[in-house]
């Protein structure tokens, strides 16, 4: 017993050395990846060789698998052991082994854009652990705007903020530039803006229209998409002729010009009562660019009860507006009105016109003689 107590430190030291030697021996016989190819950058149509060298490979299973750069999707198994797991003949696997060291060489021919990603060489140590190293393959290809990353039409109310977004993939990483149709000045100033997101604060109706985002990386042709910005605003009414004159029994038009988005409902009123198509009235709406609608009321064979004030009222989801104009009587027909109707056979009106012409002629003659 005394001898055992004296030799305890020696026994502990011997056990420690034995464990260290055992661990070192086990580590020296464990598999490891001693080399993997560095990052590869290729053009479409080229080929690439990815090499993974294993030490102490023994009977461990080695494989290649591919994932996208941000690892947001499931990985695709390329090979297991010496067998390819993909059916495309563009992929080839070469295997060599010597003195318990092995090389697993993956070849990809006729490279396409979707071949880009992270290629991982794996040694399956057991059911729960594996040894891995990764090489990235970059494929140079033209930019492509992502359809699910932008909207073709964006609708906002006047005064709100808007954010136009475009994102693209490609290698090298594309830059994105913004411009307006006809190279109009952007709401933030200047004709172009560079960045994925174009932020517009406090929208005005003048900001509506077509915007273009263009992705370019110097490879192939740039990719361009169109975004339409719609700005909703309440109607604004303009009356080209606030006062209109016409003689009895002749036609005349009264009109108002409305600018609004969404398109407004336009109604006409006379003495507080709405005017409808039929009888003496014909109402028409004429659309034009820039969200402008011209509403025209044609009054057929003007009578005494048609004189007075007319109200044009426009309404949409944002608001409403109204404007007033006046139709009054004059003895001489309004010959400046393009829709003038010649009464009966036209004799009386022609006589009036000829009378005016005669008065003008005599006046000019007298002025010349004097």
TrEMBL record:
Residues 1-24 form the signal peptide. It is found in: Cell membrane. PROSITE patterns: IG_LIKE. Gene3D superfamilies: Immunoglobulins. Residues 31-132, 143-228, 235-326 form the Ig-like domain. Pfam families: I-set, Ig_3, V-set. The keyword Membrane applies. GO terms for cellular component: plasma membrane. Keywords: Cell membrane, Disulfide bond, Glycoprotein, Immunoglobulin domain, Membrane, Repeat, Signal. This is Ig-like domain-containing protein. The keyword Secreted does not apply. It comes from Anopheles dirus.
């Amino acid at each position: 017993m005394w001898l055992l107590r004296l030799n305890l430190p020696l026994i502990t030291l011997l056990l420690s050395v034995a464990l260290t030697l055992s661990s070192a021996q086990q580590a020296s016989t464990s598999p490891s990846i001693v080399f993997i190819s560095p990052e590869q950058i290729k053009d479409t149509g080229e080929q690439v060789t990815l090499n993974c060298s294993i030490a102490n490979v023994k009977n461990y299973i080695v494989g290649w698998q591919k994932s996208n750069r941000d690892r947001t999707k499931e990985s695709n198994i390329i090979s297991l052991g010496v067998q390819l797991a993909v059916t495309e003949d563009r992929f080839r696997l070469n295997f060599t082994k010597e003195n318990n060291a092995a090389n697993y060489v993956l070849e990809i021919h006729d490279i396409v854009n979707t071949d880009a990603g992270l290629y991982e060489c794996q040694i399956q140590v057991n059911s729960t652990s594996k040894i891995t190293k990764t090489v990235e393959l970059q494929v140079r290809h033209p930019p492509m705007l992502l359809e699910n990353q932008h909207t073709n039409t964006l609708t906002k109310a006047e005064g709100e903020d808007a954010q136009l977004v475009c994102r693209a993939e490609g290698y090298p990483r594309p830059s994105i530039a913004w411009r307006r149709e006809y190279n109009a000045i952007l709401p933030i100033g200047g004709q172009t803006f560079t960045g994925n997101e174009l932020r517009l604060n406090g929208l005005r109706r003048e900001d509506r229209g077509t915007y273009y985002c263009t992705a370019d990386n110097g490879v192939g042709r740039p990719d361009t998409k169109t975004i339409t910005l719609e700005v909703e605003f309440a109607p604004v009414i303009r009356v080209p002729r606030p006062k209109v004159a016409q003689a009895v029994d002749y036609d005349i038009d009264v009109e108002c010009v409305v600018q609004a988005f969404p398109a407004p409902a336009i109604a006409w009123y006379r003495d507080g009562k709405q005017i409808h198509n039929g009888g003496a009235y014909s109402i028409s709406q004429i659309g034009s660019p820039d969200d402008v609608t011209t509403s025209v009321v044609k009054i057929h064979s003007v009578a005494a009860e048609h004189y007075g004030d007319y109200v044009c009222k426009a309404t949409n989801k944002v608001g409403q507006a109204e404007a007033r104009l006046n139709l009054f009587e004059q003895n001489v027909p309004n010959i400046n009105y393009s829709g003038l109707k010649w009464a009966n056979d036209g004799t009386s009106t022609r006589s009036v016109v000829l009378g005016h012409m005669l008065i003008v002629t005599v006046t000019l003659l007298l002025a010349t003689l004097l």
